[in-house]
Amino acid sequence: MNNFNIVTAFFLLFSFNISAQNSTPVLKVELPTHPRILLLEGEEDNIRNLFATGTLWSTLHTDILKESDRIIGLPLLERKQIGMRLLAVSREALRRIFFLSYSYRMTEDGKYAQRAEQEMLAVSDFRDWNPSHFLDVAEMTMGVAIGYDWLYHQLSDESRGIIRDAIIEKGLNPSLNEKHNWWLDAKHNWNQVCNAGITFGALAVYEHNPEFSRSLISRSATSIAKAMHDYAPHGAYPEGYAYWEYGTSFNVLFLSVVEKAYNSDFGLSAIDGFMGTSGYYQHMIGATNKSFNYSDCGDEFGLTPAMFWFADKSKTPSLLWNEINYLNPEYRKNHLANRLLPSVMIWAKDIATNNVEAPAQLVWTGGGTTPVALMRSSWTNPNAIYVGFKGGTAESNHAHMDVGSFIMEANGERWAMDFGKQDYQSLESKKLQIWTNNQESERWKVFRYNNFVHNTLTVNDKMHNVKGYAPLLAHSDNEKLMYASADISSLFAGELKSAKRAVAIISKKYVVVRDAVTATADKEAVVQWRMLTDATVQLIGKNKIVLTKNGKTLKIKVNSKLPLQMKTWSTQSPNDYDADNSGTTLVGFELTVPAGESSTFDVSLIPEKQRVSCSDKRLLNKWEFNSCN
């Protein structure tokens, strides 16, 4: 087992459910000398070999060098905390040190090592790395660890001692304080980021106190498994696209660094759902290149180095379909803000990227804490229809009251949208307590966070039940009728007896959202169907809306046996803490379901030049929850 003690390995693999504070395996193995983090001595040639495979890689390499040259001209970082966070400084430190260290190792030009040393000494002189918000410590520790390890032989003895002491005193030691290390038992991105940062630090200073470093690495291996189990069963990440990029990227850095050091990831990558999460992330990008931005996520997109690790590990180059696109010149300027960019060069070395084919699947579904269904009519047509649909619960980390919500794209436009998050500092500065998820939490006073502004149902003007959970019921990848359905009944406890929603792409031409609801026996249910859009809105007749955007149109047609009123709602909040939502409108309708009765209603979202055919109607008549046609 490559010098890895068999008894230790057995203990590690079967101890992930044991508290890391009570019992940690001891990793007794001789580690490589410096550099030992991610890229061993001499492995620079593996990266240089990439350059021969195409200008894509030599261009990216040159961009990193140019950015490193620019960094040299910037003022050194200072300890500037914004609210509770030092995170912006920590992230910039990681970016600068990683870029500069990479540039030195690839060129051996001393100017890069010298500036990286200055950056590390500057942050080492901070009074602390803000352990009360431990993400700040984790990212700072990772950055300084990379520089310390990669430039170990270029640092003066004095600098080496100062930087090593800072890693230990400002990074590793605070992780032992129970006041700060609650993330050891978390199941979300904090666990992944903090364990990765501490592991990098422990590996960097390993020879200074091997027993101490081993205990921290063992603890992280035990702890990070708790977060990795939340990808089960298929890989859907509960916190959404942006937090996948954060948590999973650092999780991959952890796996990569321990595998390099120990020639094993201790079986962690085999945890149910983890390898499948690369499919989730890939399918979360629509035809417009925007992400399905549910929960506290923006609709941003861009190159994600971790996907190269997944593609290499699974030997699936098609996972890089989006990533290769992001390497094109129009997106290059965005790369340089990515603090993990040099890791692309490490993880891409064994992947055939010259002819990456489009993914074979048009539909991806996953269960778990936040079930999702992701569907499209094509990977190659920029005018393709794309739909994202989610279940889950408002109780999970970073969640909104957006259960049952969907987004929809066609003809190169996003018609049904989601605001995503509001800047946290803008709310925290107003003293709002937004980090609890109970029913009475101030979090739900934020306009963007409650159900009234999401593409879901609202009943009797009530907020969703935060303890409600919506599982996926069924799905199909049949190209005539791609769909997924969910039981959203528990969102409306006391207001509806039952509620189910299904979303479909019909014959790759248009989208239908179908709802089936049953009122409670004792009272009627006033149901509002809402959809957020930034298009121009025109109400037409009793059951139609036409949306216009960038010279294109989308028709919304409602089919219901119950009478309804077509409506629009404003997205401007009277609260001074809410974000400006100018240029957007909520569209939809309201109807009343009598006490004890049931109703099913369809909403068709029809792009211009598309028509509903007789064969489409026959498909719909056989579809979920019966049809109202």
- Determine the fraction of residues in helical runs and give it as a percent range: 25-40%
Basic shape = globular
Class derived from helix and strand content = alpha+beta
Mean pLDDT: 93
Largest sheet: 8 strands, antiparallel
| Helix segment tally | 17
State the strand order across the main sheet.
7-8-9-10-17-14-13-12
Report low-confidence residues grouped into runs of 5 or more.
1-26
Count the strands? Answer: 17
Q: What integer value in Å does the Rg equal?
A: 26 Å
Please outline the helices and strands.
Blueprint: H1 6-13, H2 44-51, H3 55-72, H4 87-107, H5 110-124, H6 134-150, H7 157-172, H8 189-204, H9 210-228, H10 241-262, H11 277-283, H12 306-314, H13 321-326, H14 332-335, H15 342-347, E1 363-366, E2 372-376, E3 386-390, E4 406-410, E5 413-416, H16 424-428, E6 457-459, E7 472-478, E8 481-487, E9 496-506, E10 510-519, E11 525-533, E12 536-540, E13 544-549, E14 552-560, E15 564-569, E16 585-593, E17 598-607, H17 614-621
Antiparallel strand pairs: 1-2, 2-3, 3-4, 4-5, 6-11, 7-8, 8-9, 9-10, 10-17, 11-16, 12-13, 13-14, 14-17, 15-16
